[in-house]
Amino acid sequence: SEDPPLVVLGLGARPDSSLKDSTVNIRRTGEFVVNMVDEDLLPAMVDCATDLPPGESEIPYTGLHLEKAPQVDVDRIVEAPLSFACRQVTVMQFGNGRDLAIGEIQGLTARPGVIDPETLRVNWDAYHPVGRLFATHYVRMGERISMTVPQPEELRRQAASDRGKTE
Fold first, then answer.
1. pLDDT score, position 17
2. 32, β-bridge pairs
3. I want to staple 88 with a disulfide (CB 3.0 to 4.6 A). Which of 30, 68, 97, 102 is the partner?
């Protein structure tokens, strides 16, 4: 959301149902960073899902680097095209080891060129996001589609016109 700026982070458990480090740290400190991923970072993102023992970071094995994020006392991934520094608003627990963390964005760090300095919008030519669908399935962002939400009168007029075509 934009006002206030919020993110929702889904947190899962380890195969043995114990909590992952991210969940433990968010519950303990109330702060976290959401590092956005692009196509270049996809292999490292998948490597970061490895089930290492509690307290052992995946970062040394991935070639990624950490630095302190501004506004929160948590590290961010330097190579991430966008990083959102967040303070916990709430954590909702849904069963054993299934949490949703809602955080208010305190600050944003962006790779040069990702944010257009004049419009303060994402430069889609410089950022090619990748998302996780579920399990081992990921998706690249393909063609972008922009559509305008109709005003109520337009919606009603179009629906009446469509009904007239089918009668």
1. 84
2. 86
3. 30
